[in-house]
Q: What sequence folds into this?
């Protein structure tokens, strides 16, 4: 059976238009059906090395799919095996988790453990990470459902534009002469004939001309011939919506939108805007799509998806590890945060403005460098909730070289694409890549080791002059070799104090 079907309609001018009804096939197929080996292969396209970490997250992702195929009574008993990644900054911990979520189109949030404080103190409470996850799921589901109705919404937007730019002439709903209704008969008919200066034939001809004009306008709109024409439309006025009230559930949840609160008691305010036809079509299509998408369905699906396939990445967990110091009270930014994290990670119910959300089957991936502390410094209960631990390897010179060339979004490819927009075509030779990788390793060894992020600072410094002096209006080819790199960066590399501040 085909996932799309062709349907034909007739426009007002009698022209036949063809469109395709959008089916579920337009939504990306669920990547959770990939095998662990295929998941690792997908991650290899963007991340160099760290094979052990990739295997761990691939198995965790596949186990979710396996769990969904079990009987319902057994599904609730199987909880995700949370992962603790240990490694220095810049080796790919966050990138692995982010790419994993993007691969399966799962709700994903990244939080910093150092931003939270114990309940009862000023700061963010740990429940806010679940609320952020639900908000992310809402955006994902609404985007998917909007895509499914995009064709229908666009047709409705075109129809509204036609009504705005070429409205139909008004029709008479009754006799023009009020005395005809009062007197009736011959007297009334005579009065009506005297007062009627627009015969039916003229009115019918005007209507036919208007319909022909509208049909031609619709054709021009669909062909994009009027995208640059200015048109005036009415759009809802965005009100500053929220009044925040501090409470135990977090200030971010207490916003009150008075327009939604009072329902239809207050008329929705609108304002007139002059925009191009292309922009008006986009705005009106978004309004029509919002009417076609059921908010209740979006909320229910988003909460279910956050519960069943959500991923929360907790970074800098090592910063809240450590015991209470003797003679001092509890540290609300350390062990207090751990105690509050524990019920979220082990499974609890968090109240959100969309309803209660259970965290039993959310996958938690925590990470930290653990230079000063170690995983055993976490409270024992929290340690047990991260049964899978994987240590990521520091990056070597060969890793830097691969990072510069192999990933689809390699930093060299990014700068080549950016400069190509100004007709500057940059080519990196093999010896230039080797020199940049060697410099990155040297600077990391002499100063703070920031991993692959060092490549961004070096490439930015290397191409600074070229980006500033980009030629205007003419095409140019630039080849960056080892000599070019040494001329631009050798002085900075040799000066230890200068490289500490610049690179």
A:
């Amino acid at each position: 059976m085909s996932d799309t079907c062709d349907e034909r309609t007739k426009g007002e001018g009698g022209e036949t238009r063809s469109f395709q009804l959008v089916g579920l096939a337009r939504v990306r197929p669920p990547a959770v059906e990939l095998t662990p080996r295929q998941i690792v292969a997908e991650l290899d396209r963007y991340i160099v090395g760290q094979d052990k970490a990739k295997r761990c997250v691939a198995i965790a992702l596949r186990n979710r799919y396996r769990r969904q195929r079990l009987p319902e009574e057994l599904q609730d008993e199987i909880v995700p095996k949370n992962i603790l990644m240990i490694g220095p900054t810049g080796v790919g911990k966050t990138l692995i988790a982010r790419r994993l979520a993007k691969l399966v189109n799962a709700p994903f949030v990244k939080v910093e453990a150092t931003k939270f404080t114990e309940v009862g103190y000023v700061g963010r409470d740990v429940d806010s990470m679940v609320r952020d996850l639900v908000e992310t799921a809402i955006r994902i589901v609404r985007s998917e459902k909007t895509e499914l109705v995009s064709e229908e919404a666009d047709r409705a937007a075109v129809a509204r534009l036609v009504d705005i730019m070429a409205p139909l002439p008004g029709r008479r709903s009754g006799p023009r002469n009020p005395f005809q209704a009062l007197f009736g008969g011959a007297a009334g008919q005579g009065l009506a004939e005297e007062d009627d200066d627009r015969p039916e034939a003229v009115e019918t001809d005007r209507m036919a001309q208007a319909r022909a004009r509208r049909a031609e306008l619709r054709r021009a709109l669909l062909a994009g011939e009027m995208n640059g024409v200015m048109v005036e439309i009415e759009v809802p006025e965005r009100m500053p919506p929220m009044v925040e009230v501090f409470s135990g559930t977090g200030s971010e949840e207490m916003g009150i939108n008075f327009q939604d609160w009072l329902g239809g008691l207050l008329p929705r305010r609108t304002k007139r805007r002059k925009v191009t036809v292309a922009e008006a079509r986009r705005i009106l299509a978004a309004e029509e799509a919002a009417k076609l998408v059921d908010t209740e369905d979006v909320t229910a699906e988003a909460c279910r998806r956050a519960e069943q396939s959500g991923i929360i990445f907790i970074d800098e967990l090592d910063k809240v590890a450590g015991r209470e110091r003797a003679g001092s009270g509890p540290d609300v930014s350390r062990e207090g945060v751990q105690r509050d994290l524990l019920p979220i990670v082990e499974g609890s119910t968090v109240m959100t403005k969309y309803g209660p959300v259970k965290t039993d089957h959310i996958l938690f991936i925590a990470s930290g460098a653990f230079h000063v502390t170690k995983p055993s410094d976490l409270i024992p209960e929290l340690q047990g909730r991260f049964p899978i631990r994987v240590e990521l390897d520091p990056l070597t010179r060969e890793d830097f070289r691969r990072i510069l060339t192999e990933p689809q979004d390699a930093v060299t490819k990014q700068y080549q694409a950016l400069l190509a927009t100004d007709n500057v075509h940059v080519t990196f030779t093999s010896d230039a890549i080797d020199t940049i990788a060697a410099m990155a390793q040297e600077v990391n060894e002499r100063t703070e080791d920031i991993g692959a992020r060092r490549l961004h600072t070096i490439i930015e410094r290397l191409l600074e002059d070229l980006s500033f002096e980009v030629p205007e209006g003419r095409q140019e080819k630039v080849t960056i070799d080892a000599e070019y790199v040494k001329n631009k960066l050798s002085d900075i590399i040799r000066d230890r104090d200068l490289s500490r501040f610049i690179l």
